[in-house]
Amino acid sequence: MALPGFNLPGLGIRSTSTPQVTGTSAPDVEQPSRREELAPQSEWRFEAGFIQSYSVRLVSGHAELFGVELAQNQTHNLSGLKGAVFTWQGCELEVIGEAESEYSAQETEYATEWINLHGMLESARDGASEGPRVLVVGPDSTGKSSMVRSLAAWAVRQGRAPTVVHLDPREGLLAPPSSLTAVTIVSQMEVDGWGISPMTGPSLQPVRSPLVYHFPYATPSERPNAFKAIVTRSALTTLNKLEEDPLAKQSGIIIDTPGGLNDPKSNYDMIHHIISEFSINLVVALGSERLYNDLNRRYTSKSPEDAIAVLKLAKPGGAVERDNAYMKQLRARQVRQYFFGSKESLNPHSHSIPTNDLTIYRAKPASSDAALPSFGAEDEDDYDPAATSTSSSNTMYEKVAPSLAMTGALIAIKFCSSNSEEATIRDSAIMGYLYVADVDEARKKVRFLAPHPQRWGDRALVWGTWPEAAADLVR
Amino acid sequence: MSALSPRGSISGTSDVAVDFEDSLRDLSRNDRYEIGNLTSIAREYTEYAQAISRVLENHIKTTAPNKKLPALYVLDSIVKNVGTPYTVYLGRNLYSTFMEAYTLVDGMTRRAMDSLLKTWKEPVPGSMDHRPVFPPEIVRPIENALIKAKTAALQNQRQVQQPPYRSTPTPPQYNGQYAVPPTPNQHEQYPQYVYGNSQAAPPQQQWQPAMPPPTPQQQPPFLSLNPAARPMIDVSTLRADISALISRLQMAFAASPSDQGLITQLHALLKLKQVVDSGAVPDAALQEVRTKVTALAAVAPDPRRSPQPPVPTPQWQATPAMQQPAPYQPPASVSQAYQYPGSGTLPFAQPAASMLNHTAPPLLAPNALNGLQALLANGQKPSTPQMRTAVPALQNMPHTQLNNVQNNITAAPTSNTADLLAALSKSGVLSSLPSTTPQTAPAQNSTLPPPNTSSTTSLLASLQSILPPSQNSTPTTHAAQPAGTQSKAAIPISNSALKTFRPELVQALYDNQPNQCSTCGRRFLATEEGRAKKQRHLDWHFRTNQRLADPNASRGQHRQWFLDEVEWISIPEFDPSTASAADTTAAATVQKKRGAQDQYIRAPAGITRLTCTVCQEEMKSSYSEELQDWVFTNAVYYNGKPAHATCVEEMKKPWGGGGGGSLAAALSMTGQRQRSATPESSLGKRKAEGTLAGNGARLKTG
Ligand SMILES: [Zn+2]
Ligand SMILES: [Zn+2]
């Protein structure tokens, strides 16, 4: 095993004989299986837990899960997912295992809206050098992420290479939570997720290369200015990338956002910031009449050349709330998968480093100074990287000595030197995450779990309080 | 010697490659010592493996046919005795390297190449490594192409009533290299020297008892496939044939650079290849293209003459017997021919003399060649693979030749059917096509009667009907036409347009792409390109599964670090599951820039772990997809001991500009986008190019 000294109960070592089992391993016992006949334009809704295995197999007909077509006679593991297998043409499914909830549904008008939206985007791509730039907004649990997945998957199926920008720090995309990710999708999407970020060795699915920024707070409103700075930076790199790649440029951008972004009291400040930085030309408001009306009033009343189209889509009947317990499990799974893989079995590496050699910044919790209207520029000159635990309430980061409190936390490795200015640290993309396995205060050593055997050099390390510590990753 | 020598041009950066190239050029026969010497150079300079591989490939492509086999033996010796990374670099283009040579050489050399190919499917004899010399996915396409070509050739042969067979029965330039050695050193010839009992040795005894004696007629028909006998056209073979024709013309051109006809012909063929490569030619039309190519091959100048130094008398006069039509050579005469005591430079086939001999006055426009020279000097990438092939030759040309080429290229800048036809017709290609059964005219026929020109008009018409209408000439790595978008009506962006169900949108995702992968459900178009893509995709599944089944493959697997901004901006996005070799190479080239992390040490046999001499951490080997071998990544030798390349780099170079540097780089890439001091700064004044405007962006919703 790759981790001498670590005891890893049931983690990381997965038998290759059961590749269909994703995430937490489940006993491979005989599961009840049954057939479900689905009429055209109906769907099989399910909420599958993390522990019990739950899978479907397409027996006949055609079916897709959020835009990704299911291959016939392949067993697709869906445990830990909430979603709906949809069929345009009708199909027969074999369902194996138990879900917390499952039923077939005929009310699928949402699917028509989604695929029509896809058709609109395709029309906008045809013959254009620069494709549509879509911002998806709406309250939580209205199907935003599922729709973004569908739009991306359909586009790829038609030979496009859409770029998805994911701005919800509560759930990662090709990265653990607290990541804000951008990725250009050129290969077919996976039924059970966004795929795999680059790894060594063979993988069942083509890997994708994300660009990852770090926002270690649960919601943008905790640090609006930092969030906006990262949006600016992300737009800069993304638009630069599209200039390098004509197909990606033609395919356009789809941006997913957290529900917490839609704050009428701030006059939709952050939405406006994203629209402006990414030059958005289509806003899709999901499941909120008020949000749609506000945005429509604001953006379609402008002069023709400044006008931005705003569409209103209904919340799908199958969209369900994902409660805190579920989200917590999801985050833990994402963190685990980052280090240990899921279908692919990865070997993380242990790095034991003297505390004196470490420079760690703590991203301060928002509660201390969230109310301050501005942060950054005017204070940058005052920031002294050598001073530890500066009490200036305007700063986002403070240098901290490694302590037991870090145990189980994720530490982001920034693509910048450890003595960079605060704004540089804030805006830098990240090279990866470390997991704090053990802090030995007496012997002044910290043991990290890293995805990669290579050390990270003198790069700034940032400890955020989000996501919460994952105590059970290694013991 | 030859004007084609790409001296100093291919390698550019590497003296090693230039030296290698020099030695390679001197290799004119199966010389064990020289092959061994070249192999040693390759072994010693694996860091130049890519440059050396390119030089070797290019040499095989451009050298005279009688020198191709010795060069292929060099390739064989290197991949077997040195292995990676040469297997990777040479494997990428092995198909074209092999097939293009195959189309140009004589039957005996072909059999030697067949034997060679066979050994590549097997492990190196006596090696601990049980993997084949080249992975199956590289060798199989070559085998398939050969099988198809041979089958077609045989079928064709059966149908021929009065075949105007090539009059020369044997390849005299082989004058006994292996069969009847002119020198006493047969025992130490290359195949024996490599592994003692190597199967690479192509002695005639191998085939003589087993197969019917190969008649000379079996050789030329490789290009002379009868369309009627073949319901399906194999595009890769067709492409290879077109490429082969192109190389022949290029060589002929080098020999007689002032031949305007050749230049125009060459140009026309390059365009034809582009059209075929683009996949835009419907199946039925491919049949027609195939027929034309076959016919062209029959009359195209044979390069085997051109690279030769001037000879005192026309070669055929030395062997008057060969001028006689010889419909069938009995086996006896075949074996006799192997002992033909020829000069060694004697061409065994004659080009259509009229083509080589007619000359045009050189076009001299003093400034005309500046552009082309600038292009070559700047190392700018030529726009097509064909041009890339041609560039090394161009770089060695005197000004007058460059001038000619340039004039012809600029004379026909657009690529459409009309141009192609005009070029074909102007070059004499069309007018020289035989009017009937062109497929029966073997490539090396020197006794072909003057071509019948009466059919030019009908050929023009038929070409016009089969080729796609004027379209973008530069094939891109990405599908120019997205899948399943044939007849799409634009959908306005409005809330009301969201409500109506449009079956055609579903059809575009399903019915329009009927060709489905049963493993992952991915769909492909029912076009030739779709089929090719699916084939590459299935190969990818196969490779991946094979690798996953390998218990060693998962040891030491780990996630990679994320890319930094500059890398992410510049990394070429492509789908590895359908990628062509070009995509992969482009990506690998970009990856090369990543520096320390990408340095590696090949894992010594049996060693899976090393300790970094700098950080004392363990180093583990991993499997390199690119190198197809176990390596220690991020590893170098530091003071003779293994160490992480990054550890050494960190030690040598303290952390400098850091992320600020990458930001600066990102910003400097565009210049126009300035990041201002505050996070509020808006890039937002940028306008999208109004692409939605025409599609309803301005429509009021409702
Ligand atoms: Zn597949
Ligand atoms: Zn090291």
Give keywords.
heterodimer, A: 475 residues, alpha+beta, Jelly Rolls, Elongation Factor Tu (Ef-tu), domain 3, 3 domains, seven-stranded mixed sheet, 22% helix, B: 702 residues, Serine Threonine Protein Phosphatase 5, Tetratricopeptide repeat, two-stranded antiparallel ribbon, 4% strand, disordered N terminus, binds zinc ion
Main sheet of chain B, how many strands, which sense, barrel?
Answer: 3 strands, antiparallel
- Largest sheet: number of strands, sense, barrel closure of chain A: 7 strands, mixed
Shape label of chain B? globular
Say what the CATH topology of the domain at 14-134 in chain B is: Serine Threonine Protein Phosphatase 5, Tetratricopeptide repeat
State the CATH architecture of the largest domain in chain A: 3-Layer(aba) Sandwich
Poorly predicted ranges of chain B: 1-12, 161-231, 303-481, 653-702
Structure class of chain A: alpha+beta
Most extensive interface: pair and counts?
A-B, 136 and 116 residues
Helix content of chain A: 10-25%
Terminal Cα span of chain A = 15 Å
Distance between the termini of chain B: 76 Å
Number of strands of chain A: 23
CATH class of the domain at 14-134 in chain B: Mainly Alpha
**Ligand catalogue:** zinc ion
Bin the strand percentage of chain B: under 5%
Number of H/I helices of chain B? 26
